[in-house]
Amino acid sequence: xxxxxxxxxxxxxxxxxxxxxxxxxxxxxxxxxxxxxxxxxxxxxxxxxxxxxxxxxxxxxxxxxxxxxxxxxxxxxxxxxxxxxxxxxxxxxxxxxxxxxxxxxxxxxxxxxxxxxxxxxxxxxxxxxxxxxxxxxxxxxxxxxxxxxxxxxxxx
Length: 156
Description:
Largest sheet: 5 strands, mixed
Shape: elongated
Number of strands: 7
Oligomer: single chain
Distance between the termini: 70 Å
Number of helices: 3
């Protein structure tokens, strides 16, 4: 490394002064840049993996996204094949209220996001919303996809 102490020359006499040395006043930033580049690469690779990865075909609406909060939101997913997931864990329908009650006791907010495949019946969505309410979550956000045509009110 280039850090350290430089000796001063004693002039033209050929003598060296002992004990007198000047500290280098230049900072070597190469190691700092190397560390920053490695951290940047790590975060660029890790960031896409932080989303909930259950594939669901969300219905399309013209609604805007909700603002984000400090605590990671609880996500309930209803898939087209009839599975119910809390975050990424499969949960049997008869255990849903018990698990939601236990989760609600440990969380600071009662907000939950419901992701339901557009192909499942509305009756199933309503049943899960009732289970969420019984489990202690009364602030339910329905997750939709905003890509696509907006609703025009004509019923099409």
